[in-house]
Amino acid sequence: MQKILEKIQLDAWIAALGEWEILAPAMEDGIWGYHPLDGAVRLDHSNTTQPPKGLSFPQREVFFSFEQIKGEPPRLTQKMPAATRRAVFGVRPCDGAGAVRMDKVFSDHVADPYYQNRRKNLAYVGLACNKPQGSNCFCLSVGGSPVATEGMDVLMTDLGDRYFVTAVTETGKALMSAAAKVFTAPTAADKKLVEKTHADAVAQPQRAVNDVDAAPAKLKASFDSPLWEELARACIGCGVCTFLCPTCHCFDINDESTGSSPIKGNRVRTWDNCQFPDFTMHTSGHNPRESLGARLRQRVSHKFQYFPENFGMPQCTGCGRCISECSVGIDIINTVNKVTGHVG
Amino acid sequence: MSDNIYLPELARIAHIKEEIGGERAIKTFRVEPVEGDTFKHECGQCAMLSVFGRGEMMISIASSPLIKEYKQFSIMRVGRVSATFHELEVGDVIGIRGPYGNSFPLDDWKGKNLVFIGGGVGLAPIWPLITTALAQRADFKNITVFYGARSPRDLMYRAELERMRGDANIQLSVDKAEDGWKEFCGFVPANVLDKKPSPDNTIAITCGPPIMIKFVIENLSKLGFKDEQIYTTIENKMKCGLGKCGRCNVGKDYVCTKGPVYSWAQLKELPEEY
User: Fold this and answer.
1) Buried b (16+ CB within 10 A) or exposed e, B185-223
2) ipTM of the predicted structure?
3) pLDDT over 50 (residue A267)
4) Could you name the CATH architecture of B9-100?
5) Pairing state of beta strands B71-76 and A263-271?
6) What residues of A are in contact with residue B271 (Cβ under 8 Å)?
7) Among B7, B243, B273, whose Cβ lies nearest the Cβ of A109?
8) Which of B53, B235, B242 has its CB closest to that of A255?
9) Fold for domain B106-233?
10) Pick from A99, A101, A103: which is nearest to A116 by CA?
11) pTM, entire model
């Protein structure tokens, strides 16, 4: 399904999606992210600082609460997410690709019910990038595209005063059909223009990871490279690279205690981070990834070697956030290129 | 109980045995389901145990799958959750979910000699294998158990090991000699080299501190064991047990799903991050 939506009709479309909660890019506490719509929708921003991954995988969530008198079975109360349908507007293709990778992690082996319950109620209404969103975009070199539909339910392309709107999934068709009146059929000229817009978008210069298909073998051969420690030396271990990554999924599970007699509290999942030293430290004190270099190698190798070995695609979508937001200039493109560049 | 993979079953502590005292105390807990049946497991698999209000920890199941009534766990007091476990009493109710990980291919080893090599609390993960093999004694040829610890007081399952003599060749060792100790004195790898088990039609299974495993494998290689004849079980920090939380990986493998059991031939292919 392909339609034209005049930009002034965008609010009318959203108004027709009454049963959906609408999220869109917004600034909160000085940071651009995806938030419940408050007023008119704005899509004229560059990509958000926070990817939409927190909508399916929140930074903190309660699995269940417990209440236990010593010697007796506890009362466990599950906290499954509410089944609210949410449509997220303005998602960029790198983050659509990120959602596809998150889906693999949380459905492979066994399905994660908390993630799945949120994800199945989320629809992504994407917006193609007619030009790179920043100087660190590199989606084209990691198998993506600024106009890709991967992970999207709908993809919109900005044609100046209107959007070219394509339904990608059945959910996307339903979203568009809910407001059939606000859309018009595209003309041959519209179709030509969107093709040209997409071709121009793909032709824009971007930074690039060299030969992503060869990276798994080359990284495997570079496991003991001294470059890892050298490139990681400036790292302050803040973890912003993974917290803002659209595909980083590592987490911790802890009990938050709220009372001791009876024992009361919540079992809680929070984001965790492979750049923290205690992420892998055994109780004995032994740490398989003790050094900064070993931890940088893990982050990079997970994305460009281990994930491709397991799922056949890189776990990096080229959004560039980890580069732009790193306070000490650690650059995943340079890291991959330098390390793999030393292998024949 | 539910299809929520993070929601534990409830189990009651039925029996507690103090294996070893002191700073690195080890206690063995038998746990039984509060109601109904619990999950089945295989030799080498792990379970996530929890004390509500303190958290979860991944522990090897130390009882044979042939035992249906309870599961056994031998736990050293080292961290927050294990220290809390050591304060628990018979009758207390804990959380348990699992089983996690792969298992030892014991059925493939029928008709072979088995050499078990354990150190310290590392006897626990291979204990189900030892006891299951001995319960099916006729299916295997010679069964040898090397086991060592720092001192005679640090040897766990001592009485059970003594009862196995006759059915198995039991070779104990301590790092430091004490009066009255009549068996080998020295590290476990040295004891293996001293007794020279034959690699012919034999599988060797080892578990213990990483440094011990390293030298055990070196010495087994010296004795002519091929990489495919050596098995070990490795541990890494774990939170989910389901291949999602991201910390137990060794290269592309999450130990909680692809491990913990590896042949040395398989483990050699992975980076040394364990």
Assistant:
1) eebbbbbbbeeebebeebbbbbbbebebbebbbebbeeb
2) 0.93
3) yes
4) Beta Barrel (2.40)
5) unpaired
6) 223
7) B243
8) B53
9) Rossmann fold (3.40.50)
10) A103
11) 0.95
